[in-house]
Design a protein that fits this description.
It contains 13 helices and 13 strands. With 364 residues, it is α/β, with parallel strands linked by helices. The chain folds into 2 domains: 177 residues, ATPase, nucleotide binding domain (Nucleotidyltransferase, domain 5); 179 residues, Nucleotidyltransferase, domain 5. Strands 3-2-1-4-7-13 form a 6-stranded mixed β-sheet. It has a 5-stranded mixed β-sheet with strand order 10-9-8-11-12, with helices on both faces. A two-stranded antiparallel sheet has the order 5-6. A hairpin with a 2-residue loop joins strand 2 and strand 3.
Length: 364
């Protein structure tokens, strides 16, 4: 049996998710979790670094030092909670914080300072999972479908796993066929940004504000006209495309739209993008498993159920894995794959030329 830790901060930039897992004969078990909120000033800086700006190299280096220090503190608290010594952890799988992801220009940037994280924790760190896939011609994302297959795959039932973080991605798990997957589009990123702008709240709890609004079909049509939604996979996306400036450009053409109606329409955009991706599966999923922060948005889950009446929509909690921790667990699993020299990308997902071992190793 080996123990691994996965740590990540997603595109929502709300905080650090840290998960301790055990792997034994291919079985993955969640042992303990820890969460650390993202400091407000660091969040603002990471958001700023997602766009061109002055003195980016120095600012990025300073930001990733802070990121690594907070990650190390979170890991320390996790070890205390789990009552396990660092020497018993084989490796940390660290995703880092994505600030740029531009597969069209063949690059992706995650800030992590894995050398510092290894130094602060005394544990081997595996990171930089995306760039090897991109070097092989892939999108570098999504990376979690192979983990979804390992944990949620069934020999009898067709399943789709939907991760709804800042952006949403899908994994199709069809018995007897290679796992496939793709990014769907915005998940929580626009919903969070809009409510932060107009109500000074970090997110729309349960989708309650969106539920008060009316769907604005002209706005939805404009948003869905974005070419990303008509492209076939493999494909991935990020803040470089979907951001408040993108939304504002569409709103300029429509005159006044009530802010609550915009929130409702953004929720519909997320739901339609996911439902459309599900429809692309060769077999219609019998079960749709939702994880990530979006799994707590009851209004969004209700819309997904309505848009996919022939599928059962549920969170991964019903399948034994809390939805908040699936991605952190995935990066712990990816660290294991790297150390064991197991290829962890899937060309059917990313479009890479072939299977590749992902990650760079920073020994303790």
């Amino acid at each position: 049996m080996h123990h691994y830790i996965g740590i990540m901060s997603g595109t929502s930039l709300d905080g650090f998710d840290c998960a301790l897992i055990s792997l034994h004969h291919g079985r993955c078990e969640l042992i303990a979790t820890e969460y650390a909120p993202m400091p407000v000033d660091l969040r603002a800086e990471l958001l700023a670094l997602s766009r061109p700006g002055s003195d980016e190299l120095a600012r990025s280096a300073i930001a990733e030092q802070r990121w690594a220090a907070i990650a190390a503190s979170c890991i320390t608290q996790l070890l205390i909670k789990a009552d396990i010594d660092a020497k018993h952890i084989r490796a940390i799988g660290s995703h880092g914080q994505t600030v740029r992801h531009e597969p069209a220009r063949s690059f992706t940037i995650q800030l992590a300072n894995s050398a510092l994280l290894a130094e602060l924790t005394g544990i081997t760190v595996v990171s930089d999972f995306r760039r090897r896939d991109m070097a092989a011609g892939g999108q570098g994302a999504p990376l979690v479908p192979p983990f979804h297959e390992a944990v949620f795959g069934s020999s009898e039932r067709v399943r789709a796993v939907i991760n709804i973080g800042g952006f949403s991605n899908i994994s199709w798990l069809i018995p007897g066929r290679p796992v496939t997957g793709s990014d769907c589009g915005p998940g929580n990123v626009l919903l969070d940004a809009w409510i932060q702008r107009h109500r000074d709240q970090s997110y729309d709890a349960n989708g309650d504000w969106a539920a008060e609004g009316q769907l604005q079909q002209p706005l939805l049509a404009r948003l869905l006209s974005e070419s990303f939604f008509s492209e076939k996979g493999p494909k991935s996306t990020g803040r470089e495309l979907f951001n408040l400036e993108w939304l504002d450009r569409h709103l300029e053409h429509l005159g006044h739209v009530p802010t609550v109606d915009v929130q409702r329409t953004l929720l519909e955009l997320t739901a339609r993008a996911i439902a459309s991706a599900v429809e692309e599966a060769p077999d219609e999923p019998m079960e749709v498993l939702v994880c990530g922060g979006g799994a707590h948005n009851k209004t969004l889950l209700a819309r997904l159920s309505a848009l996919m009446p022939n599928s059962r929509v549920a969170t991964t909690a019903e399948y034994g894995v809390p939805p908040d921790w699936v991605e952190a667990m995935a990066f712990a699993w990816l660290a294991h794959c790297c150390l064991e020299l197991i290829p962890a990308n899937r060309p059917s997902v990313t479009g890479a030329k072939g299977l590749r071992v992902l990650g760079a190793i920073y020994p303790a």
